[in-house]
């Protein structure tokens, strides 16, 4: 009997998988869109769950496999899903009001997930509006001294801890970025930030584990199932993070000083009461809601920024000529400003910026973007009808490595013109991040030469959802022979 029932269950499940897969295939065929036939039931997510590769590498195969298609449909259980390859279609998506949502779903009570990256619709619009004033050029100039201090602290840390100069480069860089963002954006700064509990939190939040990858896949495959199971993304960090933010807010209230940072913006939002959108929509700026924004700033400020520094150091460490040239520029600016860098001084390092631009091209910290259609529309190239609820995936890494857009894309050449701004336009922190990354690089290269060691087998990637986590490669810091006062 039991054998019979399990056999029956297996047969029914197989029929379901087959029929659903067939449905997914017909869904796109009917719209005249090429369908990726491998695993019609859950497409790229099956590979992501069962293989030891990051998702960006899996979508990259679609990019290579269908060079002439404007878009490729794939099976994703109950979510119509489309990998959009054509650049004009991608531009259309990024500018269209039909695709405002990123399409992350999160459940009530997942307080830290209620942040500006995950939010949808009108709540996102309002929250984003309120957070935008954080990184005006004037504010950045005002907070630069904190970024600079964390750069100098980092050099001291490397000088005092020689074992940190070789191996685990990425982890060591995240300590720097964590200290910098903690100081600049939240006013929590001291040397002890190198062993900050915030670091554990930001490292853990997006660290790929089997479970977190499964959860992420499920949120893409079936939002309603995700909701039914009441899954949460960041529950385990809630108590610590919200508690810490409340402490920052209350302390700031008592001190009554203005630092023009994130905490200040939060307090002034709370003082003005309910936040209102011109459509009439309202939202209460509670400690919890504001802490969730802070949580995302922290996670955004640490790993992607550390990846940006890491990518630049990797390239400089294997291109000694370019390293010498950028060090020469850095030295000149340090001397011009008597070793006291300002935001303007950093902006004078134009070659450094070219190096950073080019290394962000070769090693973008985020591999692709997603959007969800909120009203039926049509993609211009291929005349593809898109229904509300469809999820689209758009390339970043693939464009950056496509010879059609960048000649000899694997060659690191800071002199090439790279215009990666388009994709970063959505990033509130882009200006802040660039300044922080350049400042960190300037301090590191002022004091150390770097040498890259790619271990046997070449650069590998962690099994991440949207990020690129470079592995099997390290950068060694070698104190420079020339010593400066
Ligand atoms: C080098 C470092 C960074 C990189 C490469 C990066 C990249 C990105 C990208 C590609 C997006 C767009 C995501 C999308 O449209 O789906 C984004 C969004 C965002 N980033 Fe960054 N980011 C970095 C640093 C930061 C920092 C330091 C902060 C804040 C302190 C920040 C805050 C945000 C926010 C709030 C959004 C969402 C904006 C919105 O919803 O409109 N990022 N980032
Ligand atoms: C670096 O890239 C940004 C964004 O595309 C661009 O505005 C800037 O001019 C570039 N910098 C240099 C020095 O090429």
UniProtKB/TrEMBL annotation:
Q: What is this protein called?
A: unspecific monooxygenase
Stored InterPro entries: Cyt_P450 (IPR001128), Cyt_P450_E_grp-I (IPR002401), Cyt_P450_sf (IPR036396), Insect_CytP450_Detox (IPR050476)
Q: Which family does it belong to?
A: Belongs to the cytochrome P450 family.
Q: How does it sit in the membrane?
A: Peripheral membrane protein
Enzyme class of the recorded protein, top EC level = oxidoreductase
Tell me which cofactor or cofactors this protein depends on: heme
Q: Which reaction does it catalyse?
A: an organic molecule + reduced [NADPH--hemoprotein reductase] + O2 = an alcohol + oxidized [NADPH--hemoprotein reductase] + H2O + H(+)
- Domain of life where this protein originates: Eukaryota
- Keyword field contains Oxidoreductase: yes
Q: What keywords were assigned to this record?
A: Endoplasmic reticulum, Heme, Iron, Membrane, Metal-binding, Microsome, Monooxygenase, Oxidoreductase
SUPFAM superfamilies for this protein? Cytochrome P450 (SSF48264)
Where is it located? Endoplasmic reticulum membrane; Microsome membrane
Protein EC:
1.14.14.1
What does this protein do, in the record's words? May be involved in the metabolism of insect hormones and in the breakdown of synthetic insecticides.
- The primary location reported for this protein is endoplasmic reticulum
